[in-house]
Design goal:
By secondary structure, the chain is mostly helical. 74% of the residues lie in helices and 0% in strands.
Length: 286
């Protein structure tokens, strides 16, 4: 299998101690699982193996962090500590600064400075896009406890954040005197963002590093209900569909009875019920 060959090549020239051998086997298990996940999306096995190895990063830097462990002393998080990359920190600071500047047109009307509607909409769009980019960029960074999120999934999280922030901005513009449909559009975008985040969260595979997984196994065994019980995952899908059908129906009824200003509470109720259902199914009794 390509994974085994690539892993052996990565460890070429490295003295294999019992600790390094354990690390290699942990890497092998994670790589095999990741390659299988990529192959399930239609990727060819050789390409999936190379992608999994690329996501793993520099093996030698990981080995250098593990070798001092043989002498003991330092805690796991300190031995495996990953410092933020300077380029990422610089990008995050610059993007945050641009995001604050993008919000200036939305604050000017509070000081009796007129801003055209097109300018306010552009400010909301730019600020939402910058927020999404920050989220996606952050998820692509390796941390002390987690490997980077795959590029496609990170973009998905960023897109969901962008839509959610745009929905908040559209709702805020409604309170500036815009027509009620703007509030409805903002609520719909928030709903789309919540559904997207829920899907991404439920389908998220393990991205914890091997030492974190080992520590979790030592302290507690937390069962993944959906992974162990496909029927529970199917039930959750049905529950989610029913919850949102009821929420949408209530949204429509309230819109034509009490008005748009209150109908969004139906969507909020749908979010609350869905999150409580998810929590109950994941962490409740078998």
């Amino acid at each position: 299998m390509d994974i085994h060959r690539l892993l052996d090549e990565a460890f070429a020239g490295i003295e294999v101690t019992p600790e390094i051998q354990d690390l290699k086997e942990e890497m092998r298990a994670n790589l095999v699982a990741r390659a299988a996940e990529l192959e399930s999306t239609g990727m060819a096995p050789p390409e999936a193996a190379r992608r999994a190895m690329a996501e793993l990063g520099d093996v030698r830097s990981v080995v250098e962090d593990v070798e001092p462990a043989a002498s003991g002393g330092a805690p796991d998080w300190l031995r495996h500590r990953v410092r933020p990359r300077p380029r990422y920190v610089l990008r995050a600071v610059l993007l945050a600064a641009f995001g604050v500047l993008a919000l200036v047109p939305l604050a000017l009307p509070a000081f009796d400075i007129a801003v055209p509607l097109a300018g306010q909409l552009a400010a909301v769009a730019v600020a939402a896009l910058i927020g999404g980019v920050i989220v996606a960029d952050a998820l692509r960074q390796e941390t002390t406890t987690n490997y980077p999120v795959p590029r496609g999934r990170a973009v998905g999280y960023g897109a969901a954040a962008t839509v959610g922030l745009a929905g908040v901005g559209a709702g805020a513009l409604y309170w500036r005197g815009l027509a009620l449909p703007w509030l409805a559009a903002g609520g719909l975008m928030l709903l789309v963002a919540v559904v997207a985040f829920t899907y991404l969260g439920v389908t998220q595979t393990n991205r914890h590093k091997s030492w974190v997984v080992r520590m979790q196994n030592e302290h507690a065994e937390v069962g993944d209900r959906f992974a162990k019980d496909p029927a529970a995952a199917a039930r959750f899908g049905i529950y989610t569909m029913v919850i949102w059908l009821v929420a949408f129906a209530a949204f429509g009824v309230l819109s034509f009875t009490v008005g748009w200003a209150w109908s969004w509470l139906a969507l909020l109720g749908g979010v609350v019920v869905m999150m409580l259902t998810l929590t109950r199914m994941l962490f409740g009794k078998e």
